[in-house]
Amino acid sequence: MVSDELTAMCPITNQPDFYTARIEYRPRELCLESKSLKIYLSRFREQGAFCEALAVQIRDEVAVALALEPSDVRVSLRQKARGGITITAST
Fold this sequence. Notes:
The chain is an alpha+beta fold and 91 residues long. It contains 2 helices and 4 strands.
């Protein structure tokens, strides 16, 4: 699943960082529902987080929600360029 609606606050500058999130997993008994994912991702808007920590947090929480091991979920966040630098963090 891919969403370009993820926003979190930079913990240093308190400016918004905009991300494209890609979540990959092999479904078992449970699956992510797109509307639920959209609502889940919107809760990060006011949270201060670095890209790398945010990727790990999303991976861990998705794994719990789907009753999977964290190693069975892959999250990649691509932070849109700010200051001419684009960051991609993957778990």
